[in-house]
Design brief:
By secondary structure, the chain is an alpha+beta fold. It folds into four domains: 4-17 and 168-311, MoaB/Mog-like domain (Molybdenum Cofactor Biosythetic Enzyme, Chain A), CATH 3.40.980; 21-43 and 140-166, Molybdopterin biosynthesis moea protein, domain 2; 48-128, Beta Complex (Molybdopterin biosynthesis moeA protein, domain 3); 321-388, Beta-clip (Beta Barrel). The protein has helices spanning 4-14, 149-157, 196-206, 221-230, 251-257, 292-311, 360-364, and strands at residues 20-24, 37-38, 48-49, 53-56, 64-71, 85-89, 101-104, 109-111, 114-116, 127-128, 139-141, 162-166, 170-175, 180-181, 192-193, 210-213, 236-240, 261-264, 276-280, 283-288, 321-325, 329-330, 337-343, 347-350, 367-371, 377-378, 383-388. The strands form eight sheets. The protein has a six-stranded mixed sheet, with no helix packed on it. A six-stranded mixed sheet has the order 16-13-17-20-19-18, with helices on both faces. Strands 21-24-23-25-27 form a five-stranded mixed barrel. It is elongated and about 95 Å long. It binds adenosine monophosphate and magnesium ion.
Length: 403
Amino acid sequence: MVTIYEALDMIYNHITPKSTHIIPIEAAVGSIVAQSYYASFDLPRFDNSAMDGYAVKLADAGKSVSIKEITYAGDQRETGFSEGEVVKIMTGAPTPAGCEAIVPIEEVQLNGEEIILPEKIQSNAMIRYQGEDIKSGTCFLQAQTQITAYSLALLASQGISHIEVYRKPKVVIFSTGEELKAHYEKIEPHQLYNSNAPMFYARAKELGCDVSYLASSGDTIEALQAAIRNAMDADLILTSGGVSVGDKDFTIQAFEELGMKKLFTKVNIKPGKPTTFGKLPNGYVVNLPGNPLAAMVNFEMFVKPIIRMLSGTQSFYPPIITTQMRNDYRLRGGKYSVILGKWDGNSFEPIDNQKPGMVSPLYKADGMIVTTPQTDCFKTGQLVKMIPIKLDLITDKKEDFLM
Ligand code: AMP
Ligand code: MG
């Protein structure tokens, strides 16, 4: 049996990212970029006005001046202007040669055909300088980071239409158990709907994988091996069930006979001790327990970093939010235990009734805390480290956010 940290280190030390390909930037959101990108020109490309206003000379402060011409965003740079004149200029238009400041339209007074400038004009006011945002030659997008809408803004601003990203990990999922039926099938009273496979399917999708899920397997070696053969093209095969000490728990044996090398087979974690991690010649395998809550917890703990690593990112460690307990909480102690709870941005509230075989706590949980054998109680307000599961920071509470 390995500790949670040993199991995670085993994962951190084994997984290498996938191969890369080149795709349009709009299709790359959520993917991990494989190389760093450098600016090939300055942004802004030229000095330009930050306001609708007038390009002026400082010596004309407080004076009445004539308007030489008007320049708009998209116009080519104006040649210049003399003292006693200004160029009317719109936001984004290139500043004319010799421009010493921009005075906003709101700050001048009309004087017939002319305008009167304010007494005080600050040198360089309201000018956006070439390269002040991104300097030519600098790295503006780091390799192995995730592409977001905001990365697209950067890439597009540099005229980059296609980028090199890691391929999405291909994950194949199947559950094991003679008792299981798919949720679209008719069910007999002694049977059970397979809730793990759709859950893993959706979660792996959320984490950016190409996912397929296979019909669940029966509990014989033959049935299991048929499913495994059908999943062999995966980067990661994910199964649930049949990993414990029951008389029909053949999942690991079936994989081993088809070439899986076990990296760990038991983790000191409650729930989910029998979680197994292995390697096939062309991919990895995680066998999770069948109990839904145990399967979910160990997916979050071990499968999520595997998926993140396969995706090519360097950010694969569990994130930690330090928060406080909403109420007193007692637990049995003596084990490394995972407690699911709700989190409102302020405090952590363990879910009342959470047992390994349950489904309902999964939906309620925002995060989990992991306790050592020495911990048997928490006091209200005590600080705890929470690993977020769902971090949807939109709230139904209208609150004052001004500082
Ligand atoms: P096992 O790990 O195969 O011993 O299964 C442990 C418990 O989880 C049993 O009560 C199973 O019926 C249940 N179970 C196994 N697989 C699933 C699944 N895919 N969806 C829901 N429950 C399951
Ligand atoms: Mg079973």
